[in-house]
Write a structure and sequence with these properties.
two-stranded parallel sheet, 307 residues, eight-stranded mixed sheet, alpha/beta, 10 strands
């Protein structure tokens, strides 16, 4: 095995629709011939990372996104209803009232069941983007980060169904029902690790390029309801947890995703472009880190030959 085997890791963070920015980042890393030896993803980072690791190109992913967003399945889905309520798309007063009531109905449903979205609807979306194969058979080694709601521990999938692992890693609490696995109850990896830098290092990466798509910490929104206050408190906690984990990364790429809600999938093209822009800006830092790493290994005598 050469020096690059499981050496450069790509840690793709979670953030719902903001994860489309990962496609732009990957496209630039490909163009610049930056070798990636392992991909570790959380939530939407697992979705994009799993697709790429299994052989789907950035161009193919972009085409699939266009196809999915224009499909009747998506247009009539609960995700689309949530998006409309958070993206200011509802023009007339009638549309706004309808959208408000639909969104409130979905939230009311969540009080009586484990998730707003049906497992079938969400699984259908995962299956559209992720091929039916095993994690151990991906072109690039891949890991999906999840959280066990029983023990509170991080669980990293390295074998088994790729679709199942991505589905669980993307199970946003409250929106998607967690999955039972033996004594575990598995949910979104972002509960513990929104950008899985430490998981990438534990899985063998010596250099970690992290992609952070979390929303900015500053907010001037009025906090008028208990739910808004709770959500804001969760955002603050996640920000500081992520900040600590990013300190272990060698390079952090920060696409300009703003404060987009996780459900705003129709902004895909802009998000991909922001990923490209941020990655190009980070290329000098990546190129500086990789030669430094190679020199350190050469001095220690542990630098092998490339495969």
């Amino acid at each position: 095995m050469g020096w690059r085997s499981k050496r450069i890791g790509l840690a793709l963070g979670g953030g719902g629709a903001r994860g489309f920015a990962h496609i732009g980042v990957i496209r630039v890393l490909e163009e610049e011939k930056i070798p990636i030896d392992i991909i570790v993803g959380t939530s939407s980072g697992a979705l994009i990372g799993g697709a790429y690791a299994s052989g789907t190109t950035p161009e193919e992913m972009e085409r699939k996104i266009d196809e999915y967003l224009n499909s009747q399945e998506y247009q009539s889905s609960a995700i689309r209803t949530i998006e409309k309520a958070h993206d200011g798309e509802l023009g007339s007063l009638k549309q706004k009232i309808q959208g408000f009531l639909q969104n409130k109905f979905l939230l009311l449903q969540a009080m009586f069941k484990p998730g707003i979205l049906s497992a079938e609807e969400f699984q259908s979306m995962i299956d559209f983007f992720i091929p039916d194969k095993l994690i151990q058979d991906t072109r690039i080694p891949f890991r999906a980060v999840t959280t066990d709601l029983i023990s509170g521990e991080q669980i990293v999938f390295s074998t088994g169904s790729l679709r199942e692992a991505v589905m669980i890693s993307s199970a946003v609490p409250g929106a998607i029902e967690p999955r039972k696995a033996g004594k575990m109850l598995l949910s979104d990896g972002g509960i513990i690790s929104l950008v899985p830098v430490n998981a990438a290092k534990r899985e063998g990466a010596d250099i970690v390029i992290a992609v952070n798509i979390t929303r900015g910490i500053f907010s001037d929104e009025e906090l008028e309801t208990a739910q808004e206050i709770r959500d804001r408190a969760a955002d603050i906690a996640a920000h500081h947890l992520t900040k600590n984990e990013l300190a272990s990364a060698d390079v952090v790429i920060r696409p300009g995703v703003g404060n987009l809600h996780w459900s705003v999938f129709s902004h895909a093209k802009n998000l991909i472009a922001e990923g490209e822009k941020a990655a190009r800006k980070s290329i000098p830092d990546i190129r500086m880190v990789i030669p430094l790493f190679r020199r350190l290994f050469a001095k220690s005598g542990s630098l092998g030959h490339s495969d």
